[in-house]
Each structure stands twice: as C-alpha cells, then as structure tokens.
Amino acid sequence: MTRLRMVLAYDGSGFHGFAANDGVRTVAGELSGALGRYLGHDVELTVAGRTDAGVHARGQVVTFDAGAAVADLDLEALVRSVNHQCGPAIAAREAEVVPAEFDARFSALSRRYRYLVLNRPHPDPFLAATSWHVERPLDRWAMDLACDPFIGEHDFAAYCRRPKHRDGSVASLVRRVNEATWADDGDGLLRFEIEASSFCHQMVRSIVGTMVAVGHGRLRAGDVAGIIRSGDRSKAGDLAPPEGLTLWSVGYAGWSS
After folding, report:
1. In terms of pTM, does the model score above 0.85?
2. Hey, which residues are catalytic here?
3. Which of 11, 165, 190, 239 is deepest in the core (most CB within 10 A)?
4. Closest listed residue to residue 217, CA positions, set 115, 142, 120, 144
5. CA angle 154, 157, 158 (to 5 degrees)
C-alpha cells in the first residue's frame, strides 16, 4: 500500500457536505468513487476538515492508501482521471506520495477559512454562490475591533455545536485561534480570514454572524469577550449562511495546501 496526499478544490453548492452519507450527494462519496474506479479498489478517505453542506474549499487535503507500489502509480494520470470524472464541481489540484504515518487530519497544524460578505444595496449574481449579501451598511471599524477577543486559546462553546462522544462524554470545544482579520476587497466585498489549530462545528459561521451583528450595532465589539466567556450559544449572533465560507488552506510541518 502507498499513502497518497491529494489537494482538492470544490464548489460545495450541490453537495450535502464532505462526509459520505448514503442517499445524498457528498464530496467524499463522489471523490472516493472516482478514485476507486481508477485504482480498482475501494478507497477510504481521511480529510483535514469536514465541511458542511454548501461550504466550499480551495485547499482541502485528503489522504488515502493506494494498493500499488510507488513505481506503478502515475499521479498525473490519477489527477486527470479525478478531474474528468468529478469536474468542474470537484477539482484535484495535486497528488503526491507521503510517508505511511502522514494523516490529513491529525498531521495538520492549522486550518485557514475565508468568508466573503457582499455589503452593498444590490446583489451580484456572479458572487451569489460564494458570498453572503448583506444590504445594510456595516461598521468596519467596530468589526475590526471585534476580531481581537477571538485571538488565543478559548472555549468556543458560545460559537459551536457541542457534540457528544459515543460513550456519552462531552467533547472539548477549546481551540487556539492564531489570526482573525477583516479586509476590504473593494466594491463592497469584505473578506474575513481566520486561522486556528482546528475548528469546531459551525464555529466560523457563528463568529461571522456575530461580527455582522456588531457591524449593524446589535452587539458591541466589547461584548464579544463576554460572549466567549459565557459559553452560551444564545448570546452569539445568528449563524451566517454556508455559501460565503471556504476552507482556504491547511498547514502542515514544512508544507501548506
């Protein structure tokens, strides 16, 4: 068996998330099927970040084992086959052989997400699939101030769904955020970027929803730290829609997608 790492981009609009789910179209379902047809055996994927329904990716990373020796693998042909079968909704950007102990999820040191907000009176049909159209003007200064409290290690219970383990124990929602910033890309397009060691379920969309509430004056930038400390999901802003969110890149020791 040979361990392979593949970098993917995909438009999440037509998928019920990444994870395989019988009866619905998922990224993992489409990709594992395409890989299996090329390699001639079933493929089990490990993914760096399981994106939800409607969420996109530019630098998603998966690992899987191919039942062939390195010398017998044509990685360029493998990439072409995936793109022929799955494109344009899913695109394999590259594939390479990695050590057997490399794991897309557990070897990752960081994940970076990008969220786009189109803040102007009229929508743009060419951005509708990849951004959240917010008509009312947003206070960028307040939103910039609201970024600071997220930096560092916190329990993000106020911004995440809290899953339970199979044994009934409650999962930790402590995460370390390395960066959280807003940028203006012009013509009303605002870009939020956040990088963390890992993310819990719906964390970025909840943070963006809170930021927009700050931008509209429903919350103050000074409220954010208190919301984090409270651990109360009801105190945070509404969940931002999935179409504005993209898993932008995943960082590993000496390499990034």
Report:
1. yes
2. 52
3. 190
4. 142
5. 100
